[in-house]
């Protein structure tokens, strides 16, 4: 039995879930999210919870059971509270600026990077341009955009320069000593 799939998803106040034969729609204060699902699982709304059950005991159905339960849970959390991801920018002269819907990053290259902030994500620059906070209702979209920004200048292990997640710890390496 799936330990994750058997847990019902609680619905907070103000969140409404509708289930059609191949689509789940979750509406809340922060917006609306939709997710299609496979016929190996059944999704039902009972009282103030969403219950996901599987139709068979095949290996694929068991995998889908936990997957769709977690996807629905992420949708419920996203439309009620939202998701946030913070990025720290370390390095001399490294900074971020927000100009409208374009995030401009100075990362030690000869030119600056201009990254368009996707629809559904809000970006805020804090701490003198050293911290970028991304937030939105879709967990996958927020994480993907944060990963793309981090990929512009990965943190290096000698001085720690680059873009890292706020909770990420960079293990520093010892450089050359120059002694024979």
Q: Could you tell me the number of beta strands?
A: 13
Structural class: alpha+beta
Give the distance, in angstroms, between the N- and C-terminal Cα atoms: 62 Å
Largest sheet: 4 strands, antiparallel
Count every helix, treating DSSP H or I runs of 4 or more residues as helices: 2
CATH class of the largest domain: Alpha Beta
Radius of gyration: 21 Å
The oligomeric state is single chain
Strand content: 35-45%
CATH superfamily of the largest domain: Ribosomal protein L6
The CATH architecture category of the largest domain equals Alpha-Beta Complex
Number of domains: 2
What is the third-level CATH name, the topology of the largest domain? Outer Surface Protein A, domain 3
Rounded mean pLDDT score: 94
